[in-house]
Amino acid sequence: MKSDIIVIGGGASGLAAAVTAARKGAGVTILERMPRIGKKLLATGNGRCNYTNRFMDIGCYHSRNLAFVSHVLETFTWKDTEDFFSGLGILPKAKEGYVYPNSMQAASVLDALRFELERLGVNIVTDCHVTEIRPKRKGFQVLCKEKSFHCRRVILACGGKASEKLGSDGSGYELCRKLGLSIVPVVPALTGLKVKEKYYKALSGIRTEGSVTLYIDGKKTDCHTGELQLADYGISGIPVFQFSGQAAYGLLNHRKVTCELDFFPEWDIEKLTTFLNRRFKHFIGQSPEVFETGLLNRKLIHECMKLACQNEKRTFPDMSALAHILKHFPATVTESRGFDFAQVCAGGVDLSEIDPSTCESVKYPGLYITGELLDADGICGGYNLQWAWATGSVAGNHAGKEYYDTNRPN
Ligand SMILES: Cc1cc2nc3c(=O)[nH]c(=O)nc-3n(C[C@H](O)[C@H](O)[C@H](O)COP(=O)(O)OP(=O)(O)OC[C@H]3O[C@@H](n4cnc5c(N)ncnc54)[C@H](O)[C@@H]3O)c2cc1C
Fold first, then answer.
1. What gap in Å lies between CA 303 and CA 392, rounded to an integer?
2. How far is it, in rounded angstroms, from Cα 284 to Cα 101?
């Protein structure tokens, strides 16, 4: 079967690329290994799809080549994303910069893309797992388990290997390796972290406001504030997600990775100690339970009191020791929670081998790589989808450019 352009992967970046290239008049075929396109999109933003963010800053991304990332995000901005989707009928709803469809349903975003693909006559082949891309004299041969396709250009949009059940199983990295492209080591990001301390089991299920600081080999590396989630395996929640990729790289490089949780980030240690001493005097002669009630989550303050007593058989700890624990609650990170629970992958195809103006491979003109497969990942808040739309549009625009005006549909 012959197409002008084959898009491998019907996820966010592949769908953006297919729409953009088809609007230029190119004949586009999407090959998707799952029975349906866009399965992951439906799961984004807890089913609401936080599809971009109006606060765009390079500090919200990680990559070995941030200049590349900036270039792409300046070429296709958050405003371009809003306009692209507004053109498909998606009314944006912004909440503190985070942009969702007004329907608050990820399904609307996928449906709008599907309707546009249909209007443009894009061919969609599902249950089609691509196993190899063979560069030919004029274009490429794309091999699936049972079929083979020929095309002038390929847009490789297979995603990473986060949340495999939603489609991306890491086969994109394999396809790139077979072509001799370099891959920056891939680790899970936007996920929880497993810790050594046994007492987290007793704290499982607790959600509390606070901040969490990451230390790599004892050096303060990052810090985020928000809702912390404690789990039987360790720590989670958006503040932990934000630096989980850095923590995973630390572990990969055999560094010591630790975190400290601060349950009173707005008070310094002196203010907290003074407060606790006053509280202790107020409840003098009463049980620890009375002292603990209402201070923090019941199980959490109880565990902090035990830790501050340092296993001595005391009912009350020294208040400065308690203040210390409340502001430096320890977590020794042993492992990331892994790819299955990660929202994205950090690392990927080395950006020095890709042209930032087109997302085209330097080694293989006509081969484009988009989205999470590339060495760039964003923090929570719509940044990863923005990267997917931006790279997909840049690639689709360039791959489809020579078809402009000749075959362009109305
Ligand atoms: C639970 C969850 C929630 C998220 N929420 C948000 C959010 O609200 N906002 C945000 O910005 N980001 C969010 N993300 C991240 C975001 O979804 C991804 O970064 C983005 O989808 C990546 O787009 P992509 O096109 O690179 O890859 P994907 O969307 O993963 O698409 C890749 C596609 O390629 C297909 N494929 C893979 N290999 C092959 C092959 N060999 N042959 C054929 N097809 C193949 C896959 O089945 C898949 O459909 C979330 C991620 C998860 C897991």
1. 49
2. 54
Q: Are residues 137 and 259 in the same domain?
A: no
Q: Is residue 409 part of a domain?
A: no
User: Two tokens at 60?
Assistant: 């919200």
Q: Which residues, judged by CB distance below 6 Å to any ligand atom, belong to the binding site of ligand 1?
A: 8-14, 31-34, 40, 43-45, 49-50, 129-130, 157-159, 162-163, 166-169, 171-172, 343-344, 371-373, 382-385, 388
Q: pLDDT tens digit string along 270-280?
A: 999 999 999 99
Ligand 1 atom at shortest distance from the alpha carbon of 175: 41
Ligand 1 nearest-atom number relative to CA 157: 25
**Looking at the structure, do residues 229 and 356 belong to the same domain, yes or no?**
no
Quote the CA–CA distance of 375 and 190 in Å, as a whole number: 15
pLDDT digits (tens, 9 = 90+) for 206-256: 999 999 999 999 999 999 999 999 999 999 999 999 999 999 999 999 999
* 223 plus 135 within the same structural domain: no
